[in-house]
Every structure is written in C-alpha cells, then in structure tokens.
Amino acid sequence: MGRYDDIFAEGMATFKQPENKKKKAEMAMQNFDPRSVCKQAMEIAKSFEYPLKGTEEDIETLECILRGLHVDYTNNNMEEPKLTNASIIFGVYLGQLLLDLFLTKAGYKWDLSSGMPMVWKNENNHVSPLSKVRKHIENGDEDDIRPFCKVVQMIANGEFKPEMFNK
Question: What DSSP state is assigned to residue 79?
Fold first, then answer.
C-alpha cells in the first residue's frame, strides 16, 4: 500500500468513451462538477501545506505539489489508481484555474465528448490539463506546467499562433 491510500483512495469517476458519444457526453457534462473536484484539490493541497487560493499564484503552488508527487511516483509510492485519481483531481483544478484566469473570456469551456474532461473551444482549439498533470507526475520537470500555462495564456490573449511553428 502506498502513501496515498487515504488521500486518493476515493475513486474518481472514470471518463470512458461513450457508445453514443454525443448523448452520453451531454449526460456526463450534466454530472461533471469541476467546482467540487476543485474543492477536493484545495483540501488535499492544504493537507500537503501548499494551500491553493484560486489565483494565478496557484500555478507555482501546483507545480510544487506535482514535483512532490513525481518524487513519490518515481520512488514507487504512488501506484494506480491513485496516480489516475491525483491526475484527475489536480488536472481538473488546473483546467478550472485556466478557465477562470484566461480561457473563459476566449470562449473555452469544459467538454467531455472525448471521454475525458478537456478545456475546449472547438475541434481545433482545446487543451488537456488532466493529461499535462499526469505527464508531470510521471516525467517530472520535463513536463513542468508553467510553460503549458504560459502558452494557454498566450492562446487566450490571441498572441499564440500555431502557424508560427509551421514555417
């Protein structure tokens, strides 16, 4: 048993690919409550002595939390399903934070049609904070969330143009 049996023991609902994608995605969105997941993330962060406040400074705080989780992951102190639960909890928190800070004003919102919560504007404009958080826990500094958040902010402000990299 790992160190996170109590903290991440409560299984988060998994977001499986629905059979009737559109209808099931609509039903899943009705049951998806990112604010309650964010409250859970804030309680866990407080127990780690890294309080989250819903401000831009939380990006740095969340980075510290994820670095600690990475160390525990590499030391085999966090195995499935706790890794998945931590990724969902802190990924939803990161996604909601990015929505609140930058993305809602740019027309983004939560979407579950892919089977996992994503921050979505349209088919060509979406980000996956849950995937980014999981990658950070697994890979450490190479998947630091701060550059990801900076790119998201640039996207929201209309400063980031992907075609800049296609030259």
Answer: -
